[in-house]
């Protein structure tokens, strides 16, 4: 199976085709489309949780970026997919990265009013709290959790500049 077919399998959620390609060559995980998106990006983009889980099981990194500097977590945030975002967090994704426009995945979740995804980010900040470059400081997270409401100040603090 060539790279294009593998990427198509990820985009359509064809887990058996993903498995067949992987068993033929583990190097297939490095395949990218013209925009630099990996199979994981494409599975997330199309909402295929089973494909996302399989790709992560095979060792594809949730931290790989496309040409815009976005990881799969950015796509989950933009598409209101809390389940996929949670899966990515459990497998090592971080909310602390900035894309080419200087925005974080949380910015897109908040901008798109994806409350479930924003809540998922807040629940998953334990790992981010260990990262000195993360904009989700424990104080702001705890305050937002305690108040159960968001203000524009929270948004600015959480999104960075």
From TrEMBL:
ANK repeat boundaries on the chain: 35-67, 68-100
List keywords of the entry alphabetically.
Answer: ANK repeat, Repeat
Q: Which domain of life is it from?
A: Eukaryota
Look up keyword Nucleotidyltransferase and say if it applies.
no
Cited Pfam families: Ank_2
SUPFAM superfamilies, per this entry?
Ankyrin repeat
Protein's UniProt name = Ankyrin repeat-containing domain protein
Organism, per UniProt? Answer: Aspergillus coremiiformis
């Amino acid at each position: 199976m060539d790279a294009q077919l593998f990427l198509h399998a990820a985009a359509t959620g064809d887990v058996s085709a993903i498995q067949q390609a992987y068993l033929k060559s583990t190097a297939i995980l490095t395949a990218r489309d013209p925009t630099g998106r990996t199979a994981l990006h494409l599975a997330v983009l199309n909402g295929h949780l089973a494909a996302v889980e399989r790709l992560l099981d095979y060792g594809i990194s949730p931290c790989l970026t496309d040409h815009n500097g976005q990881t799969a977590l950015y796509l989950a945030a933009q598409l209101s997919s809390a389940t996929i975002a949670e899966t990515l967090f459990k497998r090592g994704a971080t909310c602390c990265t900035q894309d080419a426009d200087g925005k974080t995945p949380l910015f897109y979740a908040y901008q798109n009013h994806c409350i479930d995804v924003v809540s998922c980010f807040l629940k998953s900040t334990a790992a981010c709290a260990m990262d000195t470059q993360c904009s989700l400081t424990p104080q702001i997270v705890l305050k937002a959790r305690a108040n159960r409401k968001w203000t524009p100040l929270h948004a600015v603090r959480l999104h960075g500049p």
